[in-house]
Design brief:
It is globular, with a radius of gyration of 23 Å. The protein has 269 residues and is of the alpha/beta class. Strands 2-3-1-4-5 form a five-stranded parallel beta sheet, sandwiched between helices. The chain has helices spanning 3-11, 15-39, 55-63, 81-84, 90-93, 115-118, 124-143, 157-169, 179-186, 188-202, 217-231, and strands at residues 42-49, 71-74, 101-106, 147-154, 209-213. Homotetramer.
Amino acid sequence: MARGEEAASNSRMKRKDYEKELRKLQVKLCHLQEFVKAKKLRVIILFEGRDAAGKGGTIKAITEKISPRVFRVVALPAPSDREKSQMFVQRYMQHFPSGGEIVIFDRSWYNRAGVEYVMDFCSEDEHERFLELCPEVEKYIVDGGIILIKLWLEVGMEEQERRFKARIDDPLRQWKLSPMDTESYRLWYDYSRARDMMLKATSSKHAPWTLVRSDDKRRARLNCIAHILEAIPYKRVQHERVRLPKRSSKGRYDDQEALRGMEFVAERY
């Protein structure tokens, strides 16, 4: 390991410290979801960033302890021929939140400003029109009462390469490495220029971009969650303490004996 890599590794957050802080934040996320439900809030959180920037891991850290009925994750595949003929943002709008929901977009309409533009899946005119109209569309969204949070995860060139190589060597992560990923690696500077144009054109007063350094995945996850908790003003909702009722013994019988002879999964562990 080179000296710079060793120093970077040593500065990364330790797992024990990360898990301790993550639990604190996840408790707060549970309070947040109760407030969102109670007040019928509508929230959209956009996660954008380079490939291997850590979007998926951050979303998992946010959602692993809360209700999927409140926090809904949307990760759309490539558009169908029918969707390509629609207004660009149309296929995303059908996933917008109702009252009491937080929708997390794992990539969003900003595909038009990133992968579609760099890979020539859209024309120059379509790209320019998107950058021009996007702030207006987002103002309509915000004026409609939706809280819109836009997060860009920024990973460095060396760290992205390290993560890609780790995926190549790990059979549990090889599925994460697509031809689009390898092209994004090759076209680093093209994606950088696309990012710069996007941030300049679409970071507005009503819908600003917030950037997150993500070379250290653990710190990035915690910083993202802390930012979300600050961006959505909430108060703890008080509930009566849940108490289990006395189990009824009416109709009591040996319910385990009734399962004798049924086929169970083999107990290999």
